[in-house]
Design brief:
This protein is of the alpha/beta class and 457 residues long. It has 13 helices and 22 strands. It is globular, with a radius of gyration of 24 Å.
Length: 457
């Protein structure tokens, strides 16, 4: 017997549950299908658990460096990794439980456990259970990419998923990938006490970022004792007793644990998309238009699976776009979104809009303001003066087009800039604003008062 719904949401990540709730509250008979755990990557093995671990790692670093602030701590710092993991697990479980409670008794909403696969454009199968709907919303997320490296699949390795189960401090953690995922874990475990080696194929860490940011982040990590290898091509991975041996073009690195953090691929291979007539791009992501409709207009793809964001906040915004357009008569578009994200090393990097590299290549007349954290009172007071700030302005429109804040509170400060960008207000509005002292934010208007022309690429 086929069960019929108004809407079926496949995947309970950051977009799926709120969308299912909105649809159900609007009177749509809705099914929410999840084959693993409610909350998706963010709740289970992404943002929430990793930032919980980052907090523990920072606590260990502060205690180990307490003398910098005139505080004496007796004896060596000892990390109880089992307790650190238990704290992380408690935070994650609370998030899962809260989500389950919220969804559990919701009117018009049916929760279904299992793997969904299209049998036609209007029907799916979930473990032998047939369901049909007028609308489908795919929120299936992404999974860690495993590169095609000789020997890799024959050795024990970890991704961000398996890292959540680590209850000991690795003796030597080797990290493949020097970008956002890899660097977060690399610094974290160095602070827990591991020896850490980061291997990156590109000439710099975080190659997406400007060279000055990559250099500053590299110096931060090297100064904390990490071994950073850039322009390092891995030719083979081998077992080495209980550990691993990563063979490079100019030598090898031996470690007790191997973390693979080289990117993520969409969870779209096993959804039966061919049967539904849904198109994917060359990378495997589901192709969507500016309103997140697929090649089948009654099927939407939201979150990481559509390749239009790959962040929790962009996934949630996908939900907002779809809900506004379907239920509120809105005309919201993905292209209205300004790129914003953070790199959660400590101190963090906050990024919004264009990078300096992108601004140079745009052909626009660009003005740039900069400020080292050594000239930010709040950073000096905290004794954490690593990093710098920079902001980019279009000289013709007077609009802010991008910013990077690498340093204390950088991931928070950047939002004040983003709000002015969304308002499409001239930079002078922020330049003339009065920000509280002593904060990091108070120096953003100062930067905007010291703009200089940026040479074109």
């Amino acid at each position: 017997m086929t069960e019929v719904f108004d809407a079926i949401v496949i995947g309970a990540g950051q977009a799926g549950p709120p969308l299912a709730a909105r649809l159900a509250s609007a009177g749509w008979k809705t099914a929410l299908i999840e084959k693993r755990r409610l909350g998706g990557t963010c709740v289970n093995d992404g943002c929430i658990p990793t930032k919980t671990l980052v907090a523990s790692a920072r606590a260990a670093w502060v205690v180990a460096n307490a003398a910098r602030w005139g505080i004496t701590v007796g004896g060596a710092v000892r990390v109880d990794m089992a307790a650190v993991k238990a704290r992380k697990d408690e935070v994650v479980q609370a998030s899962r439980d809260s989500l389950a409670t919220w969804l559990g008794d919701m009117k018009n909403l049916t929760l279904v456990d299992g793997h969904a696969r299209f049998t036609s454009a209007n029907a799916i199968d979930v473990g032998g259970r047939a369901l049909e709907a007028r609308h489908f919303f795919l929120n299936t997320g992404a999974h860690p990419r495993v590169p095609d490296i000789a020997g890799l699949r024959g050795v024990p390795f970890l991704t961000n998923v398996e890292m959540m189960d680590i209850a000991e401090v690795p003796e030597h953690l080797v990290v493949l990938g020097g970008s956002y995922i890899g660097l977060e874990f690399a610094q974290m475990y160095r602070r827990f006490g591991s020896k850490v080696t980061v291997i990156e194929n590109a000439p710099t860490l975080i190659p997406r970022e400007d060279d000055d940011i990559a250099s500053a982040v590299t110096k931060l990590l090297v100064d904390e004792g990490l071994d950073v290898r850039t322009s390092a091509k891995v030719t083979r991975v081998e077992r080495n007793g209980e550990g691993v041996r990563v063979v490079l073009g100019d030598g090898a690195v031996e470690g007790s644990h191997l973390l693979v953090g080289v990117g993520r691929d969409p969870n779209a291979d096993d959804l039966g998309l061919d049967a539904a007539g849904v198109t994917r791009d060359a990378r495997g992501f589901i192709v969507v238009d500016d309103e997140l409709k697929t090649s089948q207009p009654h099927i939407f793809a939201i979150g990481d699976v559509n390749g239009r964001g790959a962040f929790t906040h962009t996934s949630y915004n996908d939900y907002e776009i779809v809900a506004a357009n379907l239920l509120d008569g809105g005309k919201r578009r993905v292209s209205d979104r300004i790129p914003i994200y953070g790199l959660y090393v400590d101190p963090p990097l906050g990024r919004v809009g264009m990078s300096e590299r992108e601004a140079r290549a745009s052909g626009r007349r660009i003005l740039m303001g900069t400020r080292p954290m050594t000239r930010v009172g709040r950073a000096r007071e905290r004794g954490e003066t690593i990093g710098f700030m920079k902001i980019l302005v279009d000289d013709d429109t007077k609009l802010i087009v991008g910013a990077a804040i690498f340093g204390v509170e950088g991931d928070e400060v950047v939002h004040a800039i983003a709000d002015v960008m969304y308002a499409r207000a001239p930079y002078t509005v922020m330049k003339d604003a009065v920000h509280a002292h002593p904060t990091v934010s108070e120096l953003v208007p100062t930067m905007l008062g010291e703009l200089k022309p940026l040479a074109p690429a």
